[in-house]
Design goal:
alpha+beta; SH3 type barrels; 5-stranded antiparallel β-sheet
Length: 121
Amino acid sequence: MPTMFSVKGLDELVRTGGSCRVAVEVPSGFKPGDNVRAVNINPITHTRLPQYVRGKRGVVVEDRGVFVFPDTNSQLKGEKPQHVYSVVFTAAELWGPGVNPRDTLYIDLWEDYIVPEEQAS
C-alpha cells in the first residue's frame, strides 16, 4: 500500500522535506559507465520522465539508491521500488547542433526509464 501522509504532519513534511527512498534490497540493472537510452513513452498518466530526454542516449554516472516508483505509486498500483540513476546527456544529444559541445545535463532517472543502449534499436 502506498505511503499516505496525514494532514496533521503536512506542515512538518513540507518544512523538512520528504524522501521516497526505501530500505529494500533490489538488484541494480546498471552501473556507472553504462551506455543507456531513455525509453520513449507517452503515458496518459503520471510520469517523471521528461519529454526532452525520451529516446535520447546517455551514460550512467551514479546509482542513487532504491526509491518508490512514482508512476505506479501515484495511481495506487504499488510502490514498485527500483534504483534511481544519475544519467548524463550531452546538450547536442538533447537539443541538436548549435549548442556548446561542452554542455551536459545530469538527470536522475528510475530504472524503468532506461534501457541498455544496445537494446534500444
